[in-house]
Amino acid sequence: MNARRNAIVVGVYVFLATLLLGACAAPGPIPATTQPALSAMAQPYFDGLRKAGVNSVQAFGNGARVRMATSNGEIYLRYPSGLSATTFALYVDAGAVEVDSDTFNAGNAAQYEAAIKAILPAAIKSANENNTRVAVDRMGKN
Prior knowledge:
Layout: H1 2-24, H2 36-42, H3 46-51, E1 54-60, E2 65-70, E3 73-78, E4 87-92, E5 97-100, H4 109-140
Antiparallel strand pairs: 1-2, 1-4, 2-3, 4-5
């Protein structure tokens, strides 16, 4: 009976350790190489991103989700289906956008441009919708 109980306890510990490690797993390193060409591609979206309160947009290269940091919290978007995966981090400051990517090059510029043209309008739309929800929630709590 003790052997069976010990096996169950060990199994529970293994399960919990696996769960904890999975929860701590990061999507990968954040890109750090500034890419002026990507920044130029994203610049037309600057005003919309700024007005929507978007601080950053990160695509992790796994083709699953895009993470946005906004003035009203984090928002996650589904990566656009049908597009090749890209890895970039876009930052919005007072006067421009800066885009970092360690994998961008002339050979994959078209897939990055397609991703930026699909992701950034969706980011602006989602941020504005979230801003509206937050405002309505705040008004309802008064």
